Amino acid sequence: MEINGLPLHALVVHAAVVLTPLAALSGLAYAVVPRWRDWLRWPLAVLAVVALGSVWTAYLSGEQLERANQYGGELAALVETHEGRANILRWATTAFSAAAVAAAGLHRREGPVRVVLAVVLALAAVVTLVYAVLTGDAGAQIAWFGVQG
């Protein structure tokens, strides 16, 4: 799919690159700084769901872009790396979003429930953040392939 001649992937990937790390950092703040939880809970849930949508849209549009183009040689290896990391990112973001929505919905719970939610949210946020950076880096290597700096 294209919009004004540009592949959809080239457009939506920017939302994923910005919103996913922002959501993950918000999740870490929610999990680690208890006094911020009341303020962060709903913005975190909304941001996590929007980031999830952007990651899945970027993933699916990337699959479509790959099917439409033939890559060979060193570029094919970069595309394969990017695709592998994106596959992990979409599932990590899905888990993170579920944890964020659960944390927001069960915000008033005390004791072990709150601790388990905070730990799961923090772990999912870290994995999501790491794979957002790794996937974005691999995508940038593809975008800048062959350009001399």
UniProtKB/TrEMBL annotation:
Lineage per the UniProt record: Bacteria, Bacillati, Actinomycetota, Actinomycetes, Propionibacteriales
Highest rank taxon of the organism: Bacteria
UniProt cross-references to Pfam families, sorted A to Z: DUF2231
Keywords: Membrane, Transmembrane, Transmembrane helix
DUF2231 domain ranges (all copies): 5-144
Record protein name field: DUF2231 domain-containing protein
This protein's record includes keyword Transmembrane: yes
Organism, as annotated: Nocardioides vastitatis
Positions in coiled-coil regions: none
TM stretches of this protein: 12-33, 40-59, 88-106, 113-134
Transmembrane as UniProt keyword: yes
